[in-house]
Amino acid sequence: MKKITLLIFLFCVSLIVNAQAQKPNPDYDAALAKQYEADDYGMKMYVLVILKTGSNTTETKAKTDSLFAGHMANMGRLVKINKLIVAGPMGKNDKNYRGIFILNTKSLDEAKELLKTDPAVNAKVLDVEMFNWYGSAALAAYLTASEKVGKFKF
């Protein structure tokens, strides 16, 4: 009886292990995975930046407009050097969150250096919170399409 119980147990364990086994992806493209620095799951580490209303609320409208123009120009520069993958504003909320960035780096220190180039962040018109974030390595692929879907540019 012990042998039968042991065999049944081992059979159940093998079913569980096989059910959890990884299945190869028939659509896997090794060159594309390498291009986007994907791990075996098609993912990679980024830095998620949450932009918040900053502590500097005393600037004139003209100065704030100038800082935000520089903020937008800096975002364009970061896209061109493949460091800014996703960006966008947030709707009104009670946390004073203004927008997000997903930066193409896994290093919080590098993210801090990249954010030093943003005039609105430097002037404390925007403050930031940063987190490591694990997401699809193919996020950058949307940038090509995003340039073609908007009738107007910022």
From TrEMBL:
<dbReference type="InterPro" id="IPR011008">
    <property type="entry name" value="Dimeric_a/b-barrel"/>
</dbReference>
<feature type="signal peptide">
    <location>
        <begin position="1"/>
        <end position="19"/>
    </location>
</feature>
<dbReference type="Pfam" id="PF03795">
    <property type="entry name" value="YCII"/>
</dbReference>
<dbReference type="InterPro" id="IPR005545">
    <property type="entry name" value="YCII"/>
</dbReference>
<comment type="similarity">
    <text>Belongs to the YciI family.</text>
</comment>
<feature type="domain" description="YCII-related">
    <location>
        <begin position="47"/>
        <end position="133"/>
    </location>
</feature>
<keyword id="KW-0732">Signal</keyword>
<protein>
    <recommendedName>
        <fullName>YCII-related domain-containing protein</fullName>
    </recommendedName>
</protein>
